[in-house]
Amino acid sequence: MEFDNAVSGRIYINGEITDAAVGIEHGRIKAIKKHIPGAKDYGERLILPARVDPHVHFRDPGFTEKEDFFTGTLSAVFGAVSCVLDMPNTSPFLYRYHAFEEKEHTASKKAVIDYGLITGIRNRILEEKVLKRSPALKIYMAETTGGVVNDLDDLALQYLLNMMKDYEKPVIFHAEDPKFMKKGEEKSLKEHLKNRPDIAEESAVKRLIKTGKPLHIAHVSSKDGAELLKNKTDGQTAEVSPHHLFLTLDSEFENPAYGKVNPPLRTKADRDALWDALRDGRIDMVSSDHAPHTIDEKEEFETSPSGIPGVETALPLMLAAVKNGLLDFKRAVEALIENPANKFCPQKGSIEVGKDADFIIIDMKDIRKIRAEDLHSKAGWTPFEGMDAIFPSSVYVRGNEIIKNGNFEGKKGFGRNLWMIKSAGHNRHS
Ligand code: NCD
Ligand code: ZN
Ligand code: ZN
User: Fold this and answer.
1) What is the pLDDT of residues 221-232, one digit of tens each?
2) If we measure between CA atoms, which residue out of 171, 233, 228, 184 comes closest to residue 204?
3) Could you confirm whether 289 is annotated as catalytic?
4) Which CATH superfamily does the domain covering 50-344 fall into?
């Protein structure tokens, strides 16, 4: 063959499904042609770019009983993801270079797909050496799992965003305003919501948009928050997570703590407003906020940590929602695949010459029910049990078929940190 590898079929190129073939060399897309002799043909199935998930918590190092970089990336690739951005609330918290080195060491040995390690700030310390190797900076405006709060007043916020311009790295915010949060008793999803009311999100989102600076708002969860996003300015983006689109505080869970998450699950009206905002572009993208905790930890509602696993089910749930008429196919591809890649990892996310050869093979007729026992996260549970989903049958990462007919054929250590700074003269992708 003219190439290292090639695939053909109904391929998503430039917003359209086209009969074509893609030639791969050194893990990248070398050519797109009508026909390539010897290409692996996927017939009627769709070939889409794989997904970048810009918001996951893989718990490694520090909380590997919940997840580690192998199980996290394994779960991700089964869910059509070829690159994840891992959040800093591990132990040690990621902001110092020694913590970066430790996490990079473990991730590079275990990852089966590509990744980046997002840095945080603690005690007002942001290390440039870490930031340069990180795809983004994460700011926690309010307390959430991991216990780091960056309490910034408007002046400090402006200062930070001005400074970040020089680094060309997105700044991601957990947007809840501690001023409106309470510490009341918490025995149910309703009480959890009472402690983290809509106004906490509304206030934080308002403050962020008002800066007029590029930034990214994580996991928008309320009608009021979504409404404000119509005022976003240049470079301001927002994400929603599947749990806020598919679940509410009235959903039935095997265990109520499976719905305990920050920001909280809210009402059906909030959920519907989030779908509207996703459809009309106020919300730019979907990220999973994959936040696994063990079944034991989720036993007691009051003491249970907040967080829901979802990296494996995000795209499958959303494709089933397309099939069920909730979202247009093209918009789903934009929100799940193209927009996260454009913002955080532009070498992925579209089938175009020069990009990484990361594909997923999808059969839109292959609807299955989500079952916790079929998923690959260490969590071992899902709040989406029994819901419709369309999983990829194959996933390619840099030209390698990591998932083949539903089976894992990759290996630990294949995944690369795409933000590592290599010595001079080396291409960062080589
Ligand atoms: C996340 C976690 O468990 O790390 N929990 C959550 O409820 N979303 C932290 C976070 O994203 O806020
Ligand atoms: Zn968060
Ligand atoms: Zn998170």
Assistant:
1) 999 999 999 999
2) 228
3) yes
4) Metal-dependent hydrolases (3.20.20.140)
